[in-house]
Design brief:
With 284 residues, the chain is α/β, with parallel strands linked by helices. It folds into two domains: 64 residues; 192 residues, Rossmann fold (3-Layer(aba) Sandwich). The protein has 13 helices and nine strands. The protein has a seven-stranded mixed β-sheet, sandwiched between helices. It has a two-stranded antiparallel sheet with strand order 1-2. β3, α7 and β4 form a beta-alpha-beta unit. α1 crosses α2. It is elongated. 37% of the residues are buried. The structure holds S-adenosylmethionine (SAM).
């Protein structure tokens, strides 16, 4: 039997031949997944012989990755802000930019208490769960139009032992009662064209309904901005993750609904997040 080092090299070469950019890293991660160990332990075992009975499983994993299935769907989980988040094809794989948003929110609120948070389009539950963990006294309501996504989010709440969150099927704010100190959403905001031009990992495997919105990617953002005010407390804040190129249109649309618009950059120095305050359509 070949050594693990040889198998690793063959795996890397196979993934390279399929055009996978991070072929070495992905090969290491797939082998680590196969052996249920981390990359450091894998490296310490490289002189061991490969176990023959594991070869078909490895081939299957490599075939899936070679077919451009995202590594996160293959291994079935991802780390998000220190939480272990199950991901499957019903949910978007949480992005690093969204972790940055959690950082920004935490520094924005500092030690101020926060009572209630509404996470719109929760998907895997990543945002709602990270905030629920950081603000343990807050009550979080996390909604999504997809019941399948919510089933995964629910598993993530249980797996991470987070109890101050509940889940509900909803078309954005329709049927949501009460008011919230923070409404947060990373809604679909790609145009059809951007989706068609996206890499295969996204186009072939992630749910299109989580990514694409009509009206040049703005339809869902506008729907949320147009209806969120009545579900915010007086000092409440609406926070959105968006595409920076949309900020001018969003600022112009939001004038009718909010008194304060703030655009925030991500670590790549691109406009990415929108903070909206002073809702004009508060129900008093
Ligand atoms: C970009 S994903 C964000 C997922 C997750 N919040 C994250 O940041 O990783 C958008 C989410 O919005 C949900 N969604 C799409 N249309 C919706 C609607 N009309 N009402 C509620 N949720 C919706 C999708 O199912 C998807 O889970």
């Amino acid at each position: 039997m070949p050594s693990l080092a040889e198998v690793l090299k063959q795996s890397e070469d196979f993934l390279k031949s399929k055009g996978i950019a991070a072929a070495k890293l992905d090969a290491e991660l797939l082998l680590s997944y196969l052996f249920r160990c981390n990359r450091l332990s894998l490296r310490l075992r490289l002189h061991d012989s490969m176990e023959e009975h594991l070869l078909p499983q490895l081939q299957q994993l490599l075939f899936r990755r070679g077919n451009r299935e995202p590594l996160q769907y293959i291994v079935g989980e991802v780390d998000f802000y220190g939480l272990s988040i199950i991901v499957d094809r019903n949910v978007l794989i949480p992005r690093h930019e969204t972790e940055e948003l959690i950082d920004i929110i935490i520094s924005h609120f500092g030690n101020r208490p926060i009572g209630s948070i509404l996470d719109l389009g929760t998907g895997s539950g990543a945002i709602g769960l990270a905030l629920a963990k950081h603000f343990p006294k807050a009550n979080i309501l996390a909604v999504d139009a997809s019941q399948n996504a919510l089933s995964t989010a629910q598993k993530n709440a249980i797996g991470n032992e987070i109890t101050n969150i509940r889940f509900m099927v909803s078309d954005w704010l329709e049927g949501i009662d009460g008011t919230f100190d923070m409404i947060i959403s990373n809604p679909p905001y790609l145009t059809d064209e951007e989706f068609e031009n996206a890499q295969d990992e996204i186009k072939k495997f992630e749910p299109k309904s989580a990514l694409v919105s009509q009206n040049n990617g703005l339809a869902d953002i506008f729907k949320i901005i147009g209806t969120a005010g009545r579900s915010l407390t007086k000092d409440g804040i609406l926070i959105l993750e968006t595409n920076g190129s949309q900020h001018e249109s969003i600022a112009s649309f939001a004038k009718n609904y909010f008194g304060k618009f703030e655009s925030m950059r991500d670590l790549n120095d691109k406009n990415r997040f929108v903070f909206l305050q002073n809702p004009r359509n508060l129900v008093s």
